[in-house]
Amino acid sequence: MFSFFKRNKTDKLRIFDFFNQTIVTDIHSHLLPGIDDGSPDMETSLMLIGEFQELGFQKLITTPHIRMEVYPNTPSIIRGKLSEVQSQINGIQIDASAEYYIDDNYTQLLEEDHLISLAGSKYLLAEYPMIAPLLNYEERIFEMTKRGYTPVIAHPERYRYWHQNPEIFERLKNLGCLLQLNILAVEGYYGADIKKIALHLLKNNLYDLIGTDVHHDRHIQRIKKLSGMSKEMNLLENYSFQNKALFGI
């Protein structure tokens, strides 16, 4: 678990400074115990949060899934788990929102305004289906924006059905969305095709935010590998992510 500290000190400080000074706040992770496919228990949650501190993060907005047929979380469930975690940590701020799965149940939650946004803002982290596209994805975005919310589209690079139509990413931006990069895509964790799209979106300045999407320690260890990937780190360090400006300390 502590192999990160066996790396070259300069590399370690480089990624620490990137998270600590440039990004400050991670806006996408699954750290609350036992309510989705992330941390299964409090011990794991505390271990993962400690790893985030060692990486340099000053603040976390953790985002358990809300997908009613699989993870029927509610704001009260999430806030209850958050309170349990907050009572056992120090040295880092932690808040909670949610990663909303865009389906008919989500539309009902939106109509009821029964949502938990990013740090109490009007930004909502939203994910699309992984396998097949929603035919009415623009309508779903409009439903959010007309209520004053700004959709933050989680890991757009991971939706392979959009890879052959890269103009859709600019369309999402024009519709009022922000795009959130999963940093693991740049490391290559999800495969070469997803890394290629992520680099394309970075080079075309289409991302707004960056997140870790950490579910478990394997994700943390792969993030640490970026410390030795000079080309990828150069690209990340020279990009103007808005995490600090929108959600910083």
Structure description:
The chain has 249 residues and is of the alpha/beta class. The chain is 43% helix and 13% strand. The protein contains eleven helices and nine strands. It has helices at residues 9-23, 42-55, 75-86, 104-112, 137-145, 167-174, 183-187, 192-203, 217-225, 230-237, 243-247, and strands spanning 25-26, 59-62, 65-66, 93-96, 99-101, 123-127, 150-154, 178-182, 209-211. Helix 6 links the parallel strand 7 (150-154) and strand 8 (178-182).
What features would you highlight for this structure?
249 residues; alpha/beta; TIM Barrel; six-stranded parallel β-sheet; three-stranded parallel β-sheet; 11 helices; globular; disordered N terminus
- Total count of domains: 1
Instruction: Bin the strand percentage.
Output: 5-15%
CATH domain class name: Alpha Beta
Report on the biggest sheet: 6 strands, parallel
Summarize the structure.
The chain has one domain (3-247): Alpha-Beta Barrel (TIM Barrel).
Task: List strands and helices in order, with pairings.
Blueprint: H1 9-23, E1 25-26, H2 42-55, E2 59-62, E3 65-66, H3 75-86, E4 93-96, E5 99-101, H4 104-112, E6 123-127, H5 137-145, E7 150-154, H6 167-174, E8 178-182, H7 183-187, H8 192-203, E9 209-211, H9 217-225, H10 230-237, H11 243-247
Parallel strand pairs: 1-2, 2-4, 3-5, 5-6, 6-7, 7-8, 8-9
